[in-house]
Specification:
four-stranded antiparallel β-sheet, 0% helix
């Protein structure tokens, strides 16, 4: 079994390894092969172990994030043909899904591990809004939305868990977790600007 196209590395809080997403190439008996997504725990020595949810989703393995206490993983998985946010224990047990009508992606745990911020597609097209929910999947609500074709993306929690910074419309914004005080932090860098992952210091 080989790993192909690894991505989304997240440190375990203990610092002794990573959780990553990857495609795994599976050889078939007829000489062919198929690929499927997977979530793996990777040691600093290069060893790896797949983490398998013990029930649905049918296709796990995208955008994992590790809870601050190291006990949970949030990830994007395919369920019923739609991308949904799931959480599971580090050994794959107790998988839970955040209920939603539309596609979801990009989960990130809050510093206390009690909430998750993520993107949720609108009912049509590729437009997305920023949502927040309890880590058990309940109380999902919209946090931020763009009036233009841009999507709020790359959310990052403040260390105290009171604010979230995200990229939108070629700039960076900061918002309280109750949805108030949505403030632009920097001048608009222009629509063509590509804004990546945001990290607090």
């Amino acid at each position: 079994t080989d790993l192909d196209i690894p991505g989304g590395p997240r440190w375990a809080p203990s610092g002794n390894g990573l959780v990553i997403s990857s495609y795994r190439t599976i050889s078939s008996g007829s000489g062919g092969s198929t690929r499927r997504s997977a979530i793996l725990r990777v040691g600093l020595d290069g060893s790896s172990e797949e983490i398998k949810p013990n029930i649905q989703p049918e296709l796990p393995g995208f955008e994992p994030d590790v809870s601050p206490n190291g006990g949970k993983i949030a990830f994007t998985g395919v369920s019923g043909g739609s991308f949904k946010i799931w959480t599971m224990d580090l050994d794959g047990g107790n998988p839970q899904k955040i209920e939603a009508v539309n596609w979801q992606s990009g989960p990130r745990f809050s510093p206390d591990g009690k909430q998750i911020v993520f993107q949720q597609h609108r009912s049509s097209g590729t437009r997305k809004d920023l949502y927040i929910a309890s880590a058990d999947g309940s109380e999902a609500r919209m946090l931020a939305s763009s009036p233009t074709a841009s999507n709020p993306a790359s959310p990052s929690w403040s260390p105290d868990g009171k604010r979230i910074v995200y990229a939108m419309n070629g700039g960076f914004y900061s918002i309280k977790t109750d949805g108030s005080d949505n403030t632009q932090l920097f001048p608009n860098l222009g629509a063509p600007a590509t804004l990546g992952e945001i990290n607090w210091k």
